[in-house]
Amino acid sequence: MPLKQSSNYIIFSFLSLFKREIMENFGEILHDNLKKYFGFDSFKGNQEKIITNVLKGNDSFVLMPTGGGKSLCYQLPALINEGTAIVISPLIALMKNQVDAMRSFSLDDSVAHFLNSSLTKNAIAKVKKDVLDQRTRLLYVAPESLTKNENIEFLKHVNISFYAIDEAHCISEWGHDFRPEYRRIRPIISRIGPAPLIALTATATPKVQHDIQKNLEMIGASVFKSSFRRHNLYYEIRPKVHATKEIIKFILASKGKSGIIYCLSRKRVEQLAEMLVVNGIKALPYHAGMDAVTRSSNQDQFLMEEVDVIVATIAFGMGIDKPDVRFVIHYDIPKSLEGYYQETGRAGRDGGEGKCIAFYSYKDIQKLEKFMQGKPVAEQEIGKQLLLETVAYAESAVCRPKLLLNYFGEFMEGGCNNCDNCLHPKEKFEGKSHLVLSLEAILGVQEKFKSEHIANILSGTATSAVKTYKHHHSEFFDAGKDKDARFWNAVLRQALIARLITKDIENYGLLKMTQAGHDYIKKPFSIMLTQDHDFDIAPEEGDATGGGGAGTVDEELLHILKDLRKRMAKKLNLPPFVIFQDPSLEDMVIQYPVNLDELQNIVGVGVGKARKYGKEFVEVIEDYVEEKEIIRPQDMVVKSVVNKSGVKVYIIQNIDRKLNLNDIADAKKIEIMDLIDEIEAIVSSGTKLNIDYYLNEIMDSEKLDEIYDYFREAETESIDEALSELGEEYFSEEEIRLVRIKFFSELAN
Question: Distance between CA atoms of 115 and 151, rounded to whole angstroms?
């Protein structure tokens, strides 16, 4: 009998005897080993059941949220069993972290090794010798390394106790971190030789779980699911308005606390990390484009608490064991709810405070959809469905943990009272008639369509898909025309939560009726529903240093400041918008600046404008704040990172040198209208620029004076209104914008 088969036979025989003769002591032995190797007195959740199942030689599928202690489920049986456990793991950084942790529990560093591309030939030889000498109980292998023939041949000679597939969601195309090489694991294991399997993941919908088990040929495995509920985590979605400023304010209010900020692009990671540092926050970037040494160093500094914040792409955090992360912020909304849940799960792993805040704008979703173009159709369809789930979560006004648990196939009674939707609930409405209509529409199309399609039918939105299936002739088309598709999507989402309908696992996204749904149509009862948030009404993300955050406009103060502006304009014989434009006043009544330094941080107000017109405004605001006993937003000036390209400095310097504007545009490889945009931004912030030399070249004095005089009398600074009044046949947009720049520079700054 070959060595490996013989060893496995001995192990399984031993376990059978163990079970028959001393099963009553099994728990005690496990607890002794837990204390011996890891220093813990008790297991968490399902750990003991899982470890027992692994030791019995059974296949196991483990679904356990981040912080639940997945690693222990294969580490402890590996230490108890004879032979070497092969742990398949996706990241080199994760392997190193796990191996270092295991070595800290043992006097012998050979107890755990990793085998990947980062090792030298000598290091690889040392690893293989320790494994063959049976000194190594855990060998971590990247899936890419596992596919190499030399490693397959080597592992054929190893006494393998079991295989552990960590981060198993990478197997599924429906998972948030799909890796094609993960789908090759089963065939390779078959080549090396059979042994029990344990697949582990923190996130898996029913669809993803089925996909993992099917691919690994472990449909009959024992399944261990822990609850996805994390009672200590607070969830909140904010409109993406001046997100950088909001993040800086939040972190400064959480001084000394550890946090992770996730961005989708490497460029944004670099920019945001730099902004945090400029504003006195100890932060570092982390993304796959950095060299391995820097990336590893930044991760270690975060783990060692030398920095408070890591700004990262999704490449950071998988398997990183830092228990005291107090906040996880998503600057960009993630591509899937699985990814979002796993990333937020890195907060509060010690059971302490964990705040999970995401900034949402539908424009970000549209960008992600564009990124999918050019990919295979099947991949695009999967990506789109995952994005729709993310949109549904962000825009819903239902309890957020309840939504997340429902997504992962878990039911939760009531609300959490620890998310933005529960703490600030939207008004509810009677949903009985809406639910019945929705359920009947699902049946009307034979349960073969997704929620988006049903919502379009009910709202009377004749999309190409609706027309293709001739559903614009359905009795349900336009049946709910008094409400839009957004409303009907919200109803369908809450029907899912109420378990009146479900989503087909094999055909992801198709709505199917449950028995409860059929019963509800026959005998409906009152269910209160909530209308979704409408984030489309939020203004676009502006310059990170600008004002106008998500605060509420103080209408009374706004009226006072507009009256002051009107009086000042009359006194100076200027149009009111020359003094301060409306966006500046609106920002003032949110931020309440009470001195000229603070006024300079208001949108559209620079040093020159603050000094020229600001004194009376800040005095009025200061009196108002004192009289009304207003608690102002946290006093903080968000500092800007110097524009590395130096475009604005270049423009100012070359206008001072009286260089032709077309030459400046050519030098910076931009169009003339883009250059005018830059000049307008410079002037509107209070900097004086003299472009007379250029205007005199391209325009005669009569034309220039006519435009200038128009702005003296105009009620607004609108270019469209100026073109309409002056005549598009006589004046170009470029001419009017340039003269307006001269006008603002001379009178406003």
Answer: 9
